[in-house]
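DATA CLASS: polypeptide
GOAL: derive C-alpha cells

***
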Amino acid sequence: MPVGQGADLSIAIDQMLKNAVGSKSEVCIFKVHNVLRNINAKAYEPQIIAIGPYHRNKSHLEMMEKHKLEFLHSLLQRRKESVSKYVSAMKLLEEKARRCYAEATDHLSPDEFVKMMVVDGCFIIELLVKFTVLKCSQKNNDPLQKVEMDPLFRMEWIMSFLQRDLMLFENQLPFFVLSKLYEMIDPSGHQRIFIQKALEFFNDLFPGYGKNSRIEASQDNNIKHLLDLIHRNWSSLKLEPKADFTCNMENLKCIGSSTELAEAGIRFEKIDDEVSFDIVFQDGLLQIPVITIEDRTECFLRNLIAYEQHCWDTHFNIVIDYMTFLGCLIKSVEDVKKLSRHGILRSFVGDNEAVCKMFSTMNNCIVGPSSNFHYAHLFNKVNSHCDRRLNKWMASFRRKYMHSPWGVISILAASTLLLLALLQVIFQIVAWKYPIAAT
C-alpha cells in the first residue's frame, strides 16, 4: 500500500474514533435500543407531534406542524419581534445541539436544523406559557378564560397526547435550547420559573406523588432535556446510595408476590402524598405509596426506564429498581386485586388482567436488580420475616387450606369435631370427679 494511502486511512480512522467517542459526555438523546422497542414499540413513538430530528416528516404527525407555526406567530406578535432574533441565537447553538443526539443528524442541513430548533422550541415555550395562564384562570374562576382559550386547549384529548409525546425519550430538544429561548422570550423570568411551568404541565402524567417536588438549585444547569427534568423531579427526594447499601447479588433474593407475602402474615398499607419510591417495611407492615395506572402510565414508565438504561452518568437506576420491586409484588391477577383492595393500586385501564400484563411485560426488559439496588435492605428484611419458622408454617397452612371453599369447609369440620371431642372429655372428667353433680 502506498505511503500516502496509509496516511489517508489513518486520518480517516482517527476521525471515525473522534466522532465515536469524542463527544460521548454530551450525547443525551438516543433512539431506544431494540431490546426495549421490540416489546412495545408504540411506547417510544409520538402519536401527534414530532420534536427534534428523529421523527420528523412522518405523515401521521403533520397535523401539529400547522399548530407549531401558529404558536410561533402568536409568540412573535405578543413580543412584537422578528423571528430573525431567534434564528441568530439558535445558529450559535447548532453544533452543540447536534452533539446531543446519538444518531446522525447529517440529513438535516444547518438551515433545516436551526429551523427545527426555533419552531419546535418556541412551540414548547408558548405551550407552557399558555397552559400556565389557562390553569391560573381556571383556579381563579375567570369567566373570560373560556373565550380567550386557545382552540388547542379546547380539545382535551390533544392536550393529553401532547403531555405524553413531549416527554418521550426520542422526542426531545436539548434543555439548553429551551432555556435560551425562554430567556429571550421572558427576560425577567429565571430558569427555575420555566422548570416549574414544565413540571406543572407534566404533572398529570406522574403515576404517584410528584408535583410538589423541587429540583435542587445546583442541578439547574445540568438538566439534559424535558424527560431528564421529569426524572429528576420524580426521584428528587430519593435516598442516595451508600457504600453499605450495595447488595450482594449472590445473597439477594427477590421477595414473593403480594399474595405470597400476605400468606406469610405481612400486612399492606397505602401511603398518600409521599414520594413514590419511599417504601417502608417494619413489624410485618409493608407501606407503599399509591400508584395510579392510566392509559399513558406504561409509556411514562418505559421511557424513564429507557433513559436510565441509555445514560451512563445515572448514579443509580431508581425507576428500574422501583419497577423491579413492583414486578416482584405483581405476578398474577390476584396480586393486582389485593393491592387494589388496600388502595395501593388505582387503575383506570380496565380489568385487572391488563394491569398484571403491563407489569409483566415491562419487567421483561429489566435484567435484574442493579449493583446499587435501592431496595436491597428492604428485600432482606421482608425475606427474613417470611423465613421465620412460624411464618413459613402459616404461609403453608393458608396456601393449602384457605384458597378454596372445600379447604375452608374441611378446616371448619375438623375444628368442630375437635371441639366436640374436647367437650366430651371435659364432661367425662366432670362426671368422674363430681358424680352427683353430673347426675
Residues 245-391 form one domain.
